[in-house]
Amino acid sequence: MGKSSKGFKSGTRRLLKKKSRSRTKITDTLKSIDINDRVVIKIDAGIHGGMPHPRYQGNAGTIAEKRGESYIVNIKDKNKAKTLICRPEHLKKIEGGN
To answer: N or C: which end of the chain has fewer CB within 10 A?
Structure first.
């Protein structure tokens, strides 16, 4: 037997599963998020570009800045502060999060 793969998407069969016939809307790609808004990381498996690591699925954070088409998101992973670069398709704005 060969060695098992430990790639970027290993062990994410259920995490990155999409329902059949569900598509990403163009408005998800074009949506704008303001700086200091609270967002939750919700990975869209249909879009591979700008995808954060699957271990951060469901984490909440704040938008620090916009870099090109992507956003810099500050999150807290246990007791460590981390910054992620994510495209807007993988972010969901939290209403009333300020």
So the answer is: N
Q: Which helix (H) or strand (E) holds 27?
A: helix 26-30
CATH topology of domain 26-93: SH3 type barrels. (2.30.30)
Nearest to 74 by CA among 96, 45, 52: 52
Give residues with Cβ within 8 angstroms of 54, minimum separation 6. Answer: 8, 9, 12, 15, 16, 43
| pLDDT over 70 at 98, yes or no | no
Number of H helices and E strands in the chain, helices first, is 1, 5
3-state helix, strand, coil in the chain (%, to 5): 10, 30, 60
